[in-house]
Design brief:
By secondary structure, the protein is an alpha+beta fold. A hairpin with a 5-residue loop joins strand 5 and strand 6. It is elongated.
């Protein structure tokens, strides 16, 4: 019960309750006092105190009009009626005692209401879904107690998709999967980015109960593209490459690799696409190339949750220009006087040398200047002996190779080939070519003559003839021996007489 502050000059210790309810018997008096008006708000210059959360007793728990009773109440057990009509004034102490009791009752009511809400079996339930562009998403709405009402699905634009088993929106991508009093499940195929948003499941009870399902659509990044490799890169220069991938949502991640080695990017840029939903990601990488980087593979890979543990990457090969190298190869390897000789100037590099200059040390005029790397000697003689120089030239520079030729009757032993490759700060000139070193070993003398190819053929033929003559003689000897034993041939004074025709002695006397 509420009591106003005391006014001066009143009874009862200087206090007079502004509102009091007197209970009595049949002759009881009733007095009602109204509370004073609310005080005026503080002036604007004085800041308002922070709000405090206070519990108020509902009017249903304390109503001054309920103080009027016609007889004993069941709670008092007739004690009030026994007063014989005396007045009972409820003071401030009684009001202070009843206020905590009202707060306890209010808290109990709120807890019970909260428990009823948590156990509301008519509240539908849904779940958030994530789908990739072009995929299919399934939306399921369930309720334990439908309360003889139907479930409904609506899209983010609040357009009804299905009301129970009845289709409301004509979109062939949206299909009914299951419809029961306790469940409504639909599917959306060929999902696009515009399908993203909050979908609402509603149960039309009193009041209407709803549940939200957030559908997130992932944009699949396109295959990355590498830029900056179109032109060859000179040796010892910086290679600057850019990798770009569009259509990802959220923005994708890019990473680099050269061969089996990871490369650290120099920076990543994310730009929103014109559709306002997807992003284009660009990554840059820089590194210094060497001769070994020619034909090396550089790979850019895009990582995104929509790829579902699959890799999407692009690989390009580097083209590196570097200085040429050269060496001279003779054909045949051991040239002899009178034979044909070809000297091959084998030039390697990127680009491959396209110009070859042949010179002989000690000669004023060059022997040959052309794109042909072969110098031909149709018939070698001793005057061709000397040191021959090949200068191979490409767009990256020139290189010199030397070969020492010594023409003699003996087989030509291989001589070392000296290659001279100029450094970056030493351009090739005729002076540098003239200073290239060469080495010629002393010829090895052999006491035994070395047979030529024709003498070898003659020896083989003589051996074959000797074998044939030997076989014929052996055959004649064997044949003669055979005739002598079986024919009984004998030779006397140049006449041949057969023993079987010799006359007997008896016949001779007759």
């Amino acid at each position: 019960m509420w009591s106003a502050p005391p006014r001066p000059g009143t009874r009862g210790g200087g206090r007079r309750p502004e509102r009091a309810c007197l209970h009595g018997g049949r002759g009881g008096r009733h007095q009602r006092r109204f509370p004073p008006p609310s005080p005026l708000p503080p002036p604007p210059s004085v800041p308002h105190p922070p709000p405090r959360h206070e519990w108020s007793v509902p009017r249903a728990l304390f109503n001054p009009r309920r103080c009027r009773t016609a007889g004993p109440s069941p709670d008092t057990g007739g004690a009030l009626g026994a007063t014989g009509g005396s007045a009972l004034r409820l003071g401030a102490g009684t009001a202070a005692t009843m206020l905590p009791l009202g707060l306890l009752l209010l808290l109990a009511c709120c807890g019970a209401a909260r428990g009823n809400l948590s156990r509301d079996e008519s509240q539908p339930t849904t779940s958030d879904e994530t789908v990739v562009t072009g995929g299919t998403v399934v939306l399921k709405c369930q309720v334990e107690d439908p309360d003889d009402s139907s479930l409904q699905w609506s899209n983010p634009a609040q357009q009804t998709l299905y009301f129970g088993e009845k289709r409301a929106l004509r979109d062939n991508r949206i299909q009914l999967e299951k419809s029961t009093p306790k469940e409504l499940t639909i599917s959306i195929s060929d999902v696009v980015l515009s399908d993203e948003g909050e979908y609402t499941c509603s149960l039309f009870t009193m009041p209407v109960r709803t549940a939200k399902a957030l559908v997130t659509v992932l944009g699949v990044p396109q295959k990355p593209q590498i830029f900056g490799h179109e032109q060859p890169i000179d040796e010892e220069k910086l290679a600057r490459l850019t990798c770009r991938s569009s259509g990802s949502k959220p923005a994708a991640q890019l990473r680099w690799r050269k061969g089996n080695k990871e490369l650290k990017d120099e920076g990543t840029e994310v730009v929103e696409d014109p559709n306002g939903k997807t992003f284009t990601v660009s990554s840059r990488v820089e590194f210094r190339v060497t001769k070994e980087d020619n034909e090396a593979e550089v790979t850019c890979t895009v990582d995104h949750e929509s790829l579902q543990n699959t890799e999407r990457s692009t690989t390009q090969k580097l083209q590196v220009h570097y200085k040429p190298t050269a060496k001279i190869e003779p054909h045949p390897q051991y040239p002899r006087e009178g034979e044909k000789l070809q000297l091959q100037c084998d030039g390697q590099g990127n680009p491959i040398p396209q110009e070859f200059l042949w010179e002989k040390e000690g000669s004023d005029a060059p022997l040959q200047l052309s794109s042909d790397s072969v110098l031909i000697f149709p018939f070698l003689n001793k005057s061709d002996s000397g040191t021959y120089v090949c200068t191979a030239t490409s767009s990256m520079g020139s290189v010199v190779a030397k070969y020492n030729l010594d023409v003699s009757d003996l087989p030509q032993l291989p001589t070392p080939h000296v290659h001279s490759t100029p450094g970056p700060s030493q351009p090739i000139s005729h002076a540098s070519m003239a200073t290239a070193s060469s080495f010629t070993p002393a010829p090895i003398q052999d006491a035994s003559p070395v047979p030529s190819t024709s003498s070898t053929y003659h020896a083989v033929i003589g051996g074959v003839v000797a074998v044939i003559v030997f076989l014929l003689l052996s055959l004649l000897i064997v044949l003669g021996h055979y005739l002598i034993r079986h024919k009984g041939m004998c030779i006397r004074h140049g006449e041949t007489v057969t023993s079987r025709h010799r006359p007997k002695p008896a016949e001779a006397h007759t």
